[in-house]
Write a structure and sequence with these properties.
The chain has 113 residues and is mainly alpha-helical. Helices cover 69% and strands 0% of the residues.
Amino acid sequence: GIYRISGLVTEVRSLKQAFDSNVTEAQCLSENVDVHAVAGCLKLYFREMPQPLFPRSMYTKFVEGLGLANFEAKKGCLLSLLYALPDVNLMTALHLFQHLKVVASNSAENKMH
């Protein structure tokens, strides 16, 4: 899978520096580096966030919501929790979910089952 194999440290570092300084340059650079470097850069982004995407104060509620047996109750609980996130966290989570949906739809090629 694309998230299990590490990208070259130099490529991950240069991609991160590009995203930190010039998003347009980073987008161009991301098309010319190994997919594992892009995945590594994304993992690094989440590791270096000053606060977790899902705040620690909401952790127990998310775990409880995930543990609900009834699908509709689980969906309702998790949606309520997502919409209670700060706007920047919500938008980041939605973009991440969209990305993971694309990754999953290409599981035959990327071995991300």
